[in-house]
Amino acid sequence: MRIATAVAATTVLTVSFAGQASAASYTASCSTTGARGSMGATYPTGDQWPYGEFKIALSVTDTSADGHHVRVRLLTKPVGSQQVFPWKWHSLTAGSGETLTVSTTAGSSYGIYETGVEVARFEGNTKLNSCTDWT
Fold first, then answer.
1. What is the rounded distance in angstroms from the CA atom of residue 134 to the CA atom of residue 118?
2. What is the pLDDT of residues 56-93, one digit of tens each?
3. Is 52 exposed, middle or buried, given 0-12, 13-18 or 19+ CB atoms closer than 10 A?
4. pLDDT for res 22
5. Which of 32, 52, 59, 108 is the most buried (most CB within 10 A)?
6. Which residues of the chain have pLDDT under 70?
């Protein structure tokens, strides 16, 4: 997993990965008090969908100088279920106006039918507020 920090804020993240030209790409984004974030997913195609490797890009921006940190994480739903599986949080503690972008992959033996993003503002380990969006 590669983690990069950038200053520029992006509301909707467009994702393209080399070698995945025919793959379907989807985005989700949302804003809540103090945070804005997005998720881009490139789904595997053909026989690999929905059990193959998904390319994922997550982004979160701290939009308020309030002393709280912000987080972003991937959400998925398996094939044939509406159960939501939350993935690991990625935290941004650099302060207001900063953006964290994470590129990674996701896969599940249950298959991934739908992808989404959760963006939140935290005080320590207490979630203060959040938003979600689905592809």
1. 9
2. 999 999 999 999 999 999 999 999 999 999 999 999 99
3. middle
4. 58
5. 59
6. 1-22
**What pLDDT does residue 12 have?**
37
Of 62, 52, 57, residue with least CA distance to 104: 57
Q: What is the pLDDT of residue 1?
A: 34
φ, ψ dihedrals at 82, nearest 5°: -100, 5
**What single string gives the DSSP state of each residue in the chain?**
-EEEEESS--SS-----TT-TTSEEEEEEEEETTEEEEEEEEE--GGGTTTSPEEEEEEEEE---SS-EEEEEEEEE-TT----EE---EEE-S-TT-EEEEEEEE--TT---EEEEEEEEEETTEEEEEEEEE-
- Read off the tokens for 64: 């308020």
Q: Map tokens 């993935």 to a residue.
A: 87
What does DSSP say about strands 85-86 and 126-134: parallel, antiparallel, or unpaired?
A: unpaired
